[in-house]
Design brief:
Layout lengths: L2 H11 L4 E4 L6 H8 L4 E4 L3 H15 L3 E5 L3 H4 L2 H10 L3 E7 L15 H5 L5 E4 L6 H13 L5 E7 H4 L20 H13 L3 E5 L6 H14 L2 E4 L14 E4 L8 H7 L2 E5 L17 E6 L13 E4 L2 H11 L7 H15 L11 H11 L5 E4 L3 H9 L8 E2 L10 H11 L5 E6 H6 L3 H7 L4 E7 L4 H9 L14 H7 L3 E4 L5 H10 L4 E7 L4 H11 L6
Helix pairs in contact: 1-2, 1-7, 3-5, 3-16, 9-12, 10-12, 14-15, 14-21
């Protein structure tokens, strides 16, 4: 068969459902092969958005998300979304085209060394130089993308190779199971937990798998362990449970850190140092058990005393089977009450423009238990991480690894493709939204029922807050914005502008239960950032 047909057939054998992207001249053979494939092409308006959508598909399904670009400027637009997937441990295959490699067609026009460019951003990158190599390279790329720790891979398919005739067949997927931690290590972990006076359980992004969620719930129910999570670990275990302390949205000095600093053991499940640190270790301080698919990457702030390496769900199930009720801790209960009281403050505030605490409360009230919010990057991400309780896994999609702006809307769209029957809301700052706002057209074309909330402050608000915190004068961070209502309508979406605090819950309800794409512009007041996230925390005391 033709090489492009073989390539698409190989993707089908790997159970690929969607390809997100923008084809170019060098992809036309692939495009023709896709025309009669069961794989659905999702045409986007920017390659970066295609990469974000593929990464979110991988994040939510555990299967490899696939995205497609042409050569040159097309594939350079994959750099940010490739890094997003690689740092966030999301399985993604990036496919790019290239000019013919056997005979020059247009000299060096648009040609860069894509494989060299991709090496620092991926687990694997390769140019395909013969059609007969396609099955093994596709199979190997997909294996590496899925294998722990998941991440990004890249294949370049030159135009002349895509048109070749081939005489090989695709590989079939190979079943595999992750290895189990050895019994001696599990026993050592149990002994450390039994000896601890004030143990805490930390849940990170790597635990966000169905079997692991069930295992952790079993462990918490049986032992009564108090637990907290990282930002990317939100919702792994229902945050309404009585022993949930909160989310480590800050690295230190929050109310939650009163408990972290007092703990003599932290059982750290599914976290690695790519994510912004939820706490800092110090020599002679709190001991840490690292439970993950891979051993801990040690640095000056993270150096666990025990690595439990293997399938996380299996490790947690075996721990739960061996453990009894842990020692009670009244102090942790008092910290929980303090955290709860703190995050509730301001949630009923009807000040306008809307303050973050009130916004978070209204979003939580509007979203069903299984509703998904996809956050772009800005200071509001900290407010949502601290104040928004997640009830189910992968219902709060945020990026605390690359922490890139522009991912919120494409991530929400990826979530809607995976879960078409669930309520999905993108929450973006005006700066981040405008970085991929063109994807409104894609959402409208795909007939998505999607809510997009834009928090408008006409500035790069988080950097402006940091600038003020350093004592610098305001400079270089303010901008103008379009009329977002008209902007949405120009794409065929529905535009709304919040004009009072009382209007917010009404609009949320109408838009979440309506059809089509709804954009809601929410004027936001970030003046509470300094007061709540800086000044109040400076004056806190851990003597509760």
């Amino acid at each position: 068969m033709k090489a492009s047909d073989l390539f698409v057939r190989s993707l089908e054998h790997e159970e690929v459902e969607y390809i997100f992207g923008i084809p170019g001249e060098e992809n036309l053979d692939i495009l023709e092969s896709l025309r009669e494939s069961k794989i659905k092409l999702i045409l986007t308006r920017h390659e970066q958005a295609a990469g974000f959508m593929a990464a979110t598909y991988g994040r939510l399904t555990g299967k490899v998300g696939v995205c497609l670009s042409t050569l040159g400027p097309g594939v350079t637009n994959f750099v940010t979304s490739g890094a997003y997937a690689q740092l966030g441990a999301m399985p993604v295959l990036m496919i790019s085209g290239q000019k013919p490699i056997k005979k020059s067609k247009q000299g060096q026009f648009q040609i860069i060394d894509v494989v060299e460019m991709m090496k620092p951003l991926t687990k694997f990158t390769k140019q395909i130089v013969h059609g007969n190599n396609i099955p093994v390279l596709v199979h190997e790329a997909m294996r590496l993308a899925r294998e722990e720790r998941p991440g990004a891979v890249h294949l370049e398919l030159p135009e002349d190779i895509a048109a070749e005739d081939c005489n090989v067949k695709p590989f079939d997927p190979v079943f595999f199971r992750r290895p189990q931690a050895d019994e001696l290590t599990i026993g050592k972990a149990c002994e450390m937990i039994r000896q601890a006076e004030m143990p805490l359980l930390l849940i990170g992004a790597g635990a966000n798998r169905n079997r692991t969620c069930e295992a952790l719930k079993k462990l918490i129910d049986k032992t009564g362990l108090y637990f907290f999570n990282t930002q990317m670990g939100k919702g792994v275990v229902d945050e309404r449970l009585p022993t949930f302390l909160g989310t480590a949205a800050l690295s230190a000095d929050d109310y939650l850190h009163c408990a972290i600093d007092r703990a003599d053991l932290i059982i750290n499940v599914g976290h690695d140092v790519i994510e912004k640190p939820p706490f800092f270790m110090s020599p002679g301080g709190t001991k840490v058990i690292h439970i993950n698919y891979f051993s801990a990457k040690v640095d000056e702030i993270y150096f666990p005393q025990l690595n439990v390496v293997g399938d996380i769900a299996d490790s947690i199930h075996r721990l739960a089977d061996k453990m009894d009720k842990c020692k009670g801790c009244d102090y942790f209960h008092r910290v929980k009450e303090e955290v709860e009281a703190h995050v509730r403050m301001g949630s009923d505030d009807t000040h306008f423009p809307i303050r973050p605490q009130h916004l978070v409360a209204e979003v939580r009230n509007a979203m069903p238990d299984d509703g998904i919010i996809a956050l772009d990057n800005g200071v509001y991400k900290i407010w949502f991480a601290r104040n928004y309780k997640a009830y189910r896994p992968n219902t709060v999609l945020l990026d605390n690894a690359l922490a890139t702006m522009g991912a919120g809307l494409p991530s929400a769209m990826g979530a809607k493709i995976v879960h078409p029957d669930r309520k999905v809301m993108a929450i973006c700052g005006d700066g981040g939204f405008m970085m991929n706002s063109q994807e409104l057209e894609t959402a409208v074309r795909l007939k998505m029922n999607l809510v997009v909330v834009i928090l408008r402050d006409d500035a790069y608000g988080m950097i402006k807050w940091k600038q003020a915190g350093m004592g610098f004068q305001s400079f270089g961070l303010d901008y103008g914005n379009p009329d977002f209502v008209k902007y949405a309508e120009a794409y065929g979406a529905n535009g709304h502008r919040v004009k009072s605090s009382e209007q917010l819950p009404v609009l949320f309800n109408e838009c979440l239960n309506g059809s089509g794409v709804h954009l809601i512009e929410v004027p936001v007041d970030y003046s509470e950032n300094e007061k709540v996230l800086i000044e109040e925390l400076k004056s806190k005391t851990c003597i509760l």
